[in-house]
Amino acid sequence: MINEIKERIESKKIFRAMAAHNPLSAKLAEEAGFNGIWASGFELSATYGIPDASLISMTQHLDNTRAIAAQVKVPIIADIDTGYGNAVNVMHAVSAYEQAGAAAIVMEDKKFPKDTSLLEGGRQDLVSIAHFQGKIEAAAAARRTPRFTIIARTEAFIAGQGLEEALKRAHAYAEAGADMILVHSKAKTPDEILSFLDVWESKTPIVLVPTNYPELTEARMKESGKVGVVIYGNHAIRAAVSAMQEIFAKIRRDGGIHNIDSRIAPLKEIFRLQGLAETKENEKQFVR
Ligand code: SPV
Ligand code: MG
Questions:
Q1: Is 212 near ligand 1, meaning CB less than 6 Å away?
Q2: Quick one: 127 and 267 in the same domain?
Q3: What is the total count of domains within the chain?
Q4: What is the pLDDT at residue 157?
C-alpha cells in the first residue's frame, strides 16, 4: 500500500494527504481524490474538545486509525506525535500502527508531553538529535516490512531554532534511516520553508504541512523538485466546524429546520456513505 506513496514520488508527483478525524471524513477525502489520509492528532483531539498536547492516548488514536483503515483504500499516514515515550515505546507504536493498517507514521522531535505546533507562544522543547536518531532507528527495526514508511519530523523552525538547526536535524534523521523528512513551520509566509528547500541537497523527500503559509501551492512545491508529500493538516475538522456552526445558527434563527434541507447533505447521501445498500443486499441474501 505504501508503495503508492513512494511510487507517486518516484514518478515526480506530489502525494496529497488530507486530514481526517474519523472514518467518515477519511472517506470523503478519498472520494474527493486525495492520494492518502493524514490521521491527524490535532483533528482527533479537537473531536474530543481537548487541546493537541499529548492528551489523547495512543489507544484512542490507534483505534481511530484502524477504523479509518477499514473504510478507505488509500494509504494512511498516522501522526504518532512524539512516539508516546522513548525508543522502546516507539517500537511498540510502530508495530501497532503497521498492524492497524497504516502505511506510514510521522514522528516529531519534541519532548513528551508535546504542545501543539501552530500555537503562538506554545511550549516547544526538542529532544537531542542522538535521542531522536535512536527513536528513528527503533522505528525502522520494529517495522515488519520496509514498505512501512517512517517520516521523521523536525520542529526546529517551530521551536524558533532557525535554518541551520533544521538542516542539521533533517540530515541527522535521514542518516538514521528516515524515509522522508517533514519540516514543519508556523511562519505566515513560505520563506522559511523555501530557504530550507533551496539548500536541501539530499535525495530524501521532504514532507510539508502548509497550514500557516497557504500561498505555497502544490504547483510551487513541484517546482522545487524536493517535496514528496503535502499534508493538509486540519482542513477536515475546520470545514466540519464551519458547516455545523452555520447550520446550527440558522436553525436557531429560523426557529425550525424548514429552511435548511437544501444546505445540508440529503439523508440518502448519508445512507450511501454508510454503505446501506450493500448491507440491505446482504440482508436479503443471508438473513433467513
Ligand atoms: C496534526 O494535524 O496533528 C499535525 C499538524 O501534527 S499540526 O497541527 O500543524 O502540528
Ligand atoms: Mg499532530
A1: no
A2: no
A3: 2
A4: 98
- Residues 247, 168: one domain? no
Q: Tell me, what DSSP letter sits at residue 177?
A: T
pLDDT value of position 8:
83
Assess whether 32 and 122 both reside in one domain. yes
Q: Is 82 in the pocket of ligand 1 (CB under 6 A)?
A: no
For residues 77 and 209, membership in a common domain is answered with: yes
Both 24 and 164 in a single domain? yes
pLDDT of residue 3: 64
Same domain flag for 144 and 86: yes
Is 227 in the same domain as 147?
yes
Read off the pLDDT of residues 211-253 as tens digits, 9 standing for 90 and up.
999 999 999 999 999 999 999 999 999 999 999 999 999 999 9
The residues of the chain scoring below 70 in pLDDT are 1-3
CA of 186, closest atom in ligand 1: 9
Degrees, nearest 5: CA angle 101-41-69: 20
Class of residue 147 by CB neighbours under 10 A (exposed 0-12, middle 13-18, buried 19+): middle
Tell me whether residue 115 is one of the annotated catalytic residues: no
**C-alpha cell recorded at residue 118:** 501552530
pTM, entire model: 0.97
Residue 7: per-residue pLDDT: 83
Structural domain for 270, as ranges? 241-286
